[in-house]
Amino acid sequence: MEDINMNKNISGGVNAAKGFMANGLNAGIKNNVKKDMALVYSEKPCVAAGVFTTNKVKAAPVKWDYNVVHNSPYAQAVVINSGVANACTGEEGYGYCMDMAETVGNEMKLPKDAVLVASTGVIGRQLPMDIIKEGIKKLPKGLKPDEEAATLAAEAIMTTDTKSKQVAVNFEIDGKVVTVGGMCKGSGMIHPNMATMLCFITTDCMIKKDLLQKALSEIVNDTFNMISVDGDTSTNDSVLLLANGMAENKIIDTEDENYKKFYEALYYIMEELSKKIAGDGEGCKCLFEVRVLNALTKEDAKTMAKSVVCSSLTKAAIYGHDANWGRILCAMGYSGAEFDPELVDIYFESACGRLQIVKDGRADDYSEEEATKILSKEHVIAICDCKQGTFNATAYGCDLTHEYVNINADYRS
């Protein structure tokens, strides 16, 4: 993406934009001291956009939110719980979404169809609604528009995440400062197709609903749909975007230069949040980035990049700091994309430098010691140059460690 004049050094996550407030607390769903419920609220009604899992098994909150995004006149609040996913819970689970929305509505004086609902955690269990309703009654009392409150909310949506994930930027449209901020969670069951991957983005931009949805739907294909931790597409994957218009910019109602500015800012937010998820994959030690360059088509580039980043053998080699480039070329080969293996150049890159390991499909004369140094950093990039076309794509993932197995063997216990 072309880099517009954005201020990327701002804090506040979902509270960075004007008019948004948040809170997070421990309601007792997880029976421990960890925060497990969050609320995001806008002073003014918002136009809403959303992108959801393509898994045929869709959690109750996904169905609820799809209806709110596409059929309600506006949205103004999002209530989230962690610990229980409310997936595979039938009509009872969907009814609990309605109960959550109604309870928020009663506390905040909002119609229930202005309240979005999200859940993350163990699949198949019913929500403990007595605990959740008490949590919802407490959440509004702590709503604040500051960075600390945004962090409380970001922490409350975590499950196996090791850190909260937030980012925000601002930029100008016709002299008005416009802000976009967001938070997300995701560490395992990450292979979105739009993990329990949840993302909430807020903006004070004044923009038409159809253009908001268009931007979100397009950008998700190059960001969240290009990450993978373990190849599992969750029942709960959701990206929700709320715009309250409080920046008071001239409304964006056509795909003009102002739309492009907003698009690029939103792209940055979603790309950074995607990388934060990939870099916090369950048990991971390393963010693994795969860039495919000069492919014949964009789809070929994306297919090969995701094939490499999803390869368990390649991920294990990255964990072992082993420059086993044959696994990369192999993953490109079984991806189904068109390319000539005898033209491919492969490089490894990290904070230690850049090293070519393959030239024209064969091993280059490289130092294994130097390769190991490069692969020992927390962010490793594999660059695969097909040298056939002009299309590029990037995918994000992580290494595959012993800890991943330990976490998922004990997840419910």
Describe what this molecule looks like in 3D.
With 413 residues, the chain is an alpha+beta fold. The protein folds into 2 domains: 6-278, 4-Layer Sandwich (L-amino peptidase D-ALA esterase/amidase), CATH 3.60.70; 287-410, Ubiquitin-like (UB roll) (Roll), CATH 3.10.20. The protein is 32% helix and 27% strand. The protein is built from 11 helices and 14 strands. It has helices spanning 60-71, 90-108, 129-138, 147-156, 209-222, 257-278, 298-310, 312-319, 325-334, 368-375, 402-409; strands spanning 20-25, 37-52, 75-84, 115-122, 165-173, 176-185, 198-203, 238-243, 287-295, 345-350, 353-359, 362-363, 379-385, 391-398. The strands form 2 sheets. Strands 1, 2, 3, 4, 5, 6, 7 and 8 form an 8-stranded mixed beta sheet that branches. Strands 12-11-10-13-9-14 form a 6-stranded mixed beta sheet. Strand 3 (75-84), helix 2 and strand 4 (115-122) form a beta-alpha-beta unit. Helix 1 crosses helix 2 (90-108). It is globular, with a radius of gyration of 22 Å. This is Arginine biosynthesis bifunctional protein ArgJ. Belongs to the ArgJ family. Pathway: Amino-acid biosynthesis; L-arginine biosynthesis; L-ornithine and N-acetyl-L-glutamate from L-glutamate and N(2)-acetyl-L-ornithine (cyclic): step 1/1; Amino-acid biosynthesis; L-arginine biosynthesis; N(2)-acetyl-L-ornithine from L-glutamate: step 1/4. It is an enzyme of class 2 (transferase).
